[in-house]
Amino acid sequence: MKSYKDEIKGLEERGLKRRLTTLDPDLSHGDRLLKTEEGRTLIDFSSNDYLGLKGDPRVVAAMKGAAECFGVGSGASRSITGSTSQHAGLEEEIATFKGAQGALLFNSGYQANTGSIPALLSRSDEIFMDRLSHASLIDGALLSRASLSRFAHCDMDDLERLLKSSTASRKLIITEGLFSMDGTVAPIEEIVQLAGRYDAYIYLDDSHGTGVLGPTGRGRLEGLGLKAERAHIIEMGTFGKAFGTYGAFIAGPKEIIDLLVNRARAFIFSTSLPAPLISATRAALRVIIDEPERIDKLRENSTYLRKKLKNVMSGSAIELLGEEDSPIAPLVVGDNSPAMDLSKRLISLGFYIQAIRPPTVPDGTARLRITLSSAHRREELDSLIEILEGMIDETK
Ligand SMILES: Cc1ncc(COP(=O)(O)O)c(C=O)c1O
User: Fold this and answer.
1) CA atoms within 13 A on the CB side of 231
2) Ligand 1 atom 10: the closest Cα is on which residue?
């Protein structure tokens, strides 16, 4: 029989073996520090807690309070006894936040994508997916059994070429709002136009855009004034990133929400999210709505760091990707080992920046993925830039 040990050895030889690092948050001085097992404190430049909410006292208090009333576990799936007033309350609030007719909670973003896409499509349908889409979108597409066509990243000519030649009875364009590993923003206005022209639905995974993009963090669609078009847009988001909690949602037309309640297996056949967690998410949502200055600060931090990084990287072989104000600042190194080495050195100096390797990113594009938070302080950004400058100079 083929041995699993050999498989692991193969991963090791290709520099692809993943190891888990134990890191506890250190919430004593704000929401951006990590403690290692040896007791070292690191500045977290890798998590997606963009607004510094995971340890916010209001979010923590909401969870504690709800645990006293609701208990911890939810006891059953949503369609049995797992739909509490907390679930209904958050669904209503998220629909309002997103300007959608309705919303439905899922236990995670991974489950939302692998549950919803197969519920929406079948064999005779076709998916048009941006080539750099997240693994959960690819898995959802494969589970649906619809045919899958992938277009070059954010390339609208390529998307149109594929749409034009399709004879599928139902078409679904899948894209992320803010791309998780690249920091690029989807050209959603053009995607909406193409969807209208070729009679397609849009599935927008705004996991990283929600709480981050748009003047008040409503995400990639905020401020675009889309009205009639919304009848064909299905939006997905997670609470595990800017909300600082856990869980996910689909927001969209009422009939889509009804369909998912009836057809999405990941929704139907899984114990529902615990009510205390939902209460924490509702508290985080209130903070996002009431304190838009967090989003402004995130943008200010992102623009500042990226501008400096651009200067530091000029003339080096390392490429900085992404939009000017994106809180995701990937530095593409190329091969796995040098990316891992840079990451190790940064960690040894107190900056937790992980190297991202294939299969999470395409072969030959291993990168340091720096993520920013509104909780980062200016002097922390400056020290990171100084350290990176030294490292990059060595490679020039
Ligand atoms: C674009 C995208 N979609 C979906 C997910 C999955 O979300 P969750 O972490 O809630 O499962 C992630 C997070 O890893 C993501 O980056």
Assistant:
1) 5
2) 109
156: tokens are: 């609208």
In this structure, the number of other CB atoms found within 10 A of the CB of residue 275 comes to 25
Alpha carbon 18 to chain centroid, angstroms: 20
Residues whose beta carbon lies within 6 Å of some atom of ligand 1: 108-110, 113, 134, 136, 176, 180, 205, 207-208, 238, 240, 248
Nearest CA to ligand 1 atom 4: 109
Angle between helices 109-120 and 254-263 (to 10 degrees): 100
Annotated active-site positions, please? 48, 134, 176, 180, 205, 208, 241
The pLDDT tens digits for 86-95 are 999 999 999 9
Ordered by where they begin, the domains of the chain are: 10-44+292-395 (3.90.1150.10), 57-290 (3.40.640.10)
Atom index in ligand 1 nearest the CA of residue 111 equals 11
Residue 315: pLDDT over 90: no
Give percent above pLDDT 90 in the chain: 91
The pLDDT of residue 396: 65
What's the gap in Å between 170 CA and the centre of ligand 1?
A: 25
pLDDT per position as a tens digit, 11-23: 999 888 889 999 9
The single residue listed with the structure tokens 């594929």 is 162
* DSSP per-residue string spanning 314-332: TTSS-EE-S-TT-SEEEEE
pTM: 0.96
**212/56 Cα distance (integer angstroms):** 17
CB atoms within 10 A of CB 65: 14
Task: Tell the residue nearest (CA) to atom 8 of ligand 1.
Answer: 109
Distance in Å, CA 205 to ligand 1 centroid: 9
